Amino acid sequence: MGVLKQNVFLVGYMGVGKTTVARRLARDLGVAAIDVDAYLQRKHGRDANRLFKQRGEAGLRRAEAKALAECAALGPAVISCGEGIVALPENRELLKTQGFAVLLESSMEGSLSRIKSMRTRPLLAQGCDTQALWDERKPLYDEVAQAHVDVSNKGTAAAAAAIAGELKRRGIYVSD
Ligand SMILES: Nc1ncnc2c1ncn2[C@@H]1O[C@H](COP(=O)(O)OP(=O)(O)O)[C@@H](O)[C@H]1O
Ligand SMILES: O=C(O)C1=C[C@@H](OP(=O)(O)O)[C@@H](O)[C@H](O)C1
Ligand SMILES: [Mg+2]
């Protein structure tokens, strides 16, 4: 095992595997994993879908921004973010300054095809234009990402291993 020197944020589109890969990566490295969505749900006693319905997207984003800052303060940890975390400039600033952001990359279609129920993602549930969302998010992911990992043809274990290799090469994870 070893030591994680700073937060590692996993960012990327819906369904690309941020939550699943973060869990696997943290387990492989023997470090903590925090999912911002799961944290938000525990904190508010309701999930992001319900927050979205009750407070609208802007309300969800405000709650998510606080949750992100709290998660970052709990680290160093592997922190999986919701796809829309990059929407707010303050979040992008945090991602750039309070850790190392890794962009998980796959095609939009490949990512969306993994999502079993549209109802689990508020923007999909309300029938958002997924291509327009992709076009809007892509430059923002590129702005914050310090590393890009192609997960399109990788299972969870291989995706986690590719990120672990990147973290070791850069001295962000140091083995004992
Ligand atoms: N590398 C992978 N290979 C195969 N299935 C995956 C992979 N990563 C995630 N999945 C599956 O895809 C779905 C979406 O993954 P999830 O981790 O929730 O993505 P995100 O958090 O980016 O929205 C889940 O059902 C998950 O089990
Ligand atoms: O638009 C967003 O920010 C959200 C994206 C989804 O997360 P994933 O990116 O993990 O799919 C969803 O779980 C969350 O409720 C809100
Ligand atoms: Mg997720």
Automatic annotation (TrEMBL):
<keyword id="KW-0418">Kinase</keyword>
<comment type="similarity">
    <text>Belongs to the shikimate kinase family.</text>
</comment>
<keyword id="KW-0057">Aromatic amino acid biosynthesis</keyword>
<dbReference type="GO" id="GO:0008652">
    <property type="term" value="P:amino acid biosynthetic process"/>
</dbReference>
<comment type="pathway">
    <text>Metabolic intermediate biosynthesis; chorismate biosynthesis; chorismate from D-erythrose 4-phosphate and phosphoenolpyruvate: step 5/7.</text>
</comment>
<dbReference type="GO" id="GO:0005524">
    <property type="term" value="F:ATP binding"/>
</dbReference>
<dbReference type="GO" id="GO:0004765">
    <property type="term" value="F:shikimate kinase activity"/>
</dbReference>
<dbReference type="InterPro" id="IPR000623">
    <property type="entry name" value="Shikimate_kinase/TSH1"/>
</dbReference>
<keyword id="KW-0547">Nucleotide-binding</keyword>
<dbReference type="GO" id="GO:0009073">
    <property type="term" value="P:aromatic amino acid family biosynthetic process"/>
</dbReference>
<dbReference type="Pfam" id="PF01202">
    <property type="entry name" value="SKI"/>
</dbReference>
<comment type="function">
    <text>Catalyzes the specific phosphorylation of the 3-hydroxyl group of shikimic acid using ATP as a cosubstrate.</text>
</comment>
<keyword id="KW-0028">Amino-acid biosynthesis</keyword>
<dbReference type="GO" id="GO:0009423">
    <property type="term" value="P:chorismate biosynthetic process"/>
</dbReference>
<feature type="binding site">
    <location>
        <position position="137"/>
    </location>
    <ligand>
        <name>substrate</name>
    </ligand>
</feature>
<keyword id="KW-0808">Transferase</keyword>
<feature type="binding site">
    <location>
        <position position="37"/>
    </location>
    <ligand>
        <name>substrate</name>
    </ligand>
</feature>
<comment type="subunit">
    <text>Monomer.</text>
</comment>
<dbReference type="InterPro" id="IPR031322">
    <property type="entry name" value="Shikimate/glucono_kinase"/>
</dbReference>
<dbReference type="GO" id="GO:0005829">
    <property type="term" value="C:cytosol"/>
</dbReference>
<feature type="binding site">
    <location>
        <begin position="15"/>
        <end position="20"/>
    </location>
    <ligand>
        <name>ATP</name>
    </ligand>
</feature>
<keyword id="KW-0479">Metal-binding</keyword>
<dbReference type="GO" id="GO:0000287">
    <property type="term" value="F:magnesium ion binding"/>
</dbReference>
<feature type="binding site">
    <location>
        <position position="61"/>
    </location>
    <ligand>
        <name>substrate</name>
    </ligand>
</feature>
<dbReference type="InterPro" id="IPR027417">
    <property type="entry name" value="P-loop_NTPase"/>
</dbReference>
<keyword id="KW-0067">ATP-binding</keyword>
<keyword id="KW-0460">Magnesium</keyword>
<feature type="binding site">
    <location>
        <position position="19"/>
    </location>
    <ligand>
        <name>Mg(2+)</name>
    </ligand>
</feature>
<protein>
    <recommendedName>
        <fullName>Shikimate kinase</fullName>
        <ecNumber>2.7.1.71</ecNumber>
    </recommendedName>
</protein>
<feature type="binding site">
    <location>
        <position position="121"/>
    </location>
    <ligand>
        <name>ATP</name>
    </ligand>
</feature>
<keyword id="KW-0963">Cytoplasm</keyword>
